[in-house]
Write a structure and sequence with these properties.
The chain is 60% helix and 15% strand. By secondary structure, it is of the alpha+beta class. The chain has a 5-stranded antiparallel beta sheet with strand order 2-1-5-4-3.
Length: 458
Amino acid sequence: MQRWGRLSLALQFLIAGGIGLLVVMLVVGLWVTSQIRQGVMRNSAATTALYVDSVIAPLLPDMRKSRELDDTVKRALDETLDQGALGKRLASFKLWRRDGTILYAKDTTLIGKVFEPNANLVAAFSGNVVAEYNDLDDDAESQHEKKTEAGPLLEIYNPVREPWSGEVVAVSEFYEVADGFESTLTVALWQSWLVVAGATAAALALLSGIVFRGSRTIQTQREALEAKIAELRALLSQNSSLRERVQHASRRATALNERYLRRIGADLHDGPAQLVALAALRMDSPILLDPGAPTALREAEIADIHKTLDEAIREIRGICNGLVLPQIETAAVLDILRLAVAEHQRRTGTSVSLTLPKRLREPGPSEKISIYRFVQEGLNNAYRHGKGRDQAVKAAMKGGKLFVEVLDGGPGFDPVRSEGLGLAGLRERIESIGGQFETVSGPQGTRLVITLSIEEQS
């Protein structure tokens, strides 16, 4: 069954249909040949019976009145049946009475004997011409015909009718030498088999052509469907992977937001809050509270308080500047890169090497924000951890992808173990928009690279 199932529909049809049509051909062929055989036998028997009846009937007396044939009739029958074409064609002849008595026979030993009427004889007395080809009965009255060497015989039972009433009064049984009949029957049978086989082969070829064409169509559609299913499976797998990445990114984003909030809180607590607290404590200084304190000391204390508060304000503004983005969504990407580098140089007082092409494809707003944050965080790390040594920013387009790099000549770090909050947040941000984030660090310095797919804007 497994081998059968692996076959194509066309081959399955060809095998099953071929066997089915072969069986149908055999059944139809046997039925057709049987009908042809019976038809040829009936036609031949009817022709011979008519001929014999036309020759014999005038010699017979009134069979309703004569129970026996006199010698004159018998001699006339002998002479007629032994002469001419009739004598050559008839191997044996009998004339039966209804009760099974043989009134006349070429074998004179059978005349007057009574036999049990067989089925053919009964059918003939019923008015039917009965014929059998080369199939002699085992009756005692047929032993003479079995011993003859005349060749294949056509046994015919012909009813003898009364001319004026049409009633069957006797039956003539005779055996015709059927040499020509056999060849005619063989040719007819072969022709019928050839016609049936040809019609079956033509039907099989026609149906096979239709089925093979349909099978090819089904196979083509099946291959297309399998390709679609494979594509859908790949998409489902990709969607599942993306869903897992989104869930993972969502969880990490939540954690990173909490860490950002803690860092902002720590920056506010350790910086401006401490300075404001110090200023508040100095507001309770005895120098300020004592009316008799020297004016110079009081002014110096007030100046120190102002200085502390100014420093707290600067730190608060620095924190806010790191959180608030400039208007970069409508700016060109080249201008965004120049702005990020300029802000870093102004804030830190260090120099940054900037390498830009003449033109870059314009990404979307999310990509622009990500590029700005990437350069900002990368240069901050280069300043804090790389001592601001050999800071550089590069950008380029290759094969529809935008590459942005931030480099420094610092001591480097282990990216696997030491990726801090800023770099982790950048990685999540870049990967969430379909980009790639790469960190390469060693004793010779650190190299941060992002890759974004940018479509050509019309």
